[in-house]
Amino acid sequence: MLTEAQVQRFEADGYLPLGQVASDEQVAALRQHLDDLTLGSKYSEQIQYQIEPALREKLGAAAGYDYIGPSPHYRKLTKLDRDPVFLEYFCHPTFLSLLEQLLGPEVTISRAFALLKPAFDGSPLKWHQDAGPGHPAEPGQFVTIWTAMDEAQVENGALEILPGTQELGLLQHRVQDGGSQLEAEADKRVGQEVPLPAKPGEAYLLNNYVLHRSGPNPTPHRRRALTLCYKHADCPMMDQPPDYHAHYTRLPIGG
Ligand SMILES: O=C(O)CCC(=O)C(=O)O
Questions:
Q1: pLDDT tens digits for 77-99?
Q2: d(CA 128, ligand 1 centre) in Å
Q3: Among 56, 112, 186, 233, which lies 20 to 30 A Cα-Cα from 99?
Q4: pTM of the predicted model, to two decimals?
Q5: CATH label of the domain that carries residue 15
Q6: Nearest to 165 by CA among 142, 196, 186, 134
Q7: How many domains are contained in the chain?
């Protein structure tokens, strides 16, 4: 459970360090599973694979999701709640109790993915919100939990946050009149970004409206992390039919 002070801090800043949530053993098992899926022979049809843009350009491949065989150049793996090894971690008792506290007993996973930021060619992620079309539609009904699988520092692409920007609500992402509202708000706050360094297994709770980004990884140290978006089971998805969310994986809260 979060203390009252932690809830207040989360509401004010839009993020909250949760400390080490995944045990060393869990981190080792999750890392091994990521390696088996990407470098080894455990390709999974249930999961979507995306390669880094540099390799995509070299191969002349189309944008989107594609498996190209064992490779250290995968950028992202999605739909990880379909995989029992990941799902077990996504149902971590710490998550279940804080999600029940924040969202109530009926919670589903709306997104579950790993961003792998490979050594030397991990690409940057621009300022964004985890909200808008294709995301849950109702503020207060969804949160994200991010867990580092490797040591994350600014040098190898740690998360960065603009604290308090969740107060701005949903920002216009489309580029209009030479720039988006989201970029304009980020530009106003240059120098206010807070890096969120993390040791393997450490997690952060994020308000989905807070502006966040992560840098490139030009270092020899890969920076893998798991991002989980949880929502109230009945919260509709923006710009999707009302029953679109019905198939999402439900968490075993309250047995
Ligand atoms: O792991 C990261 O670098 C950030 C992931 C993220 O914020 C996202 O993809 O929405």
A1: 999 999 999 999 999 999 999 99
A2: 9
A3: 186
A4: 0.95
A5: 2.60.120.620
A6: 186
A7: 1
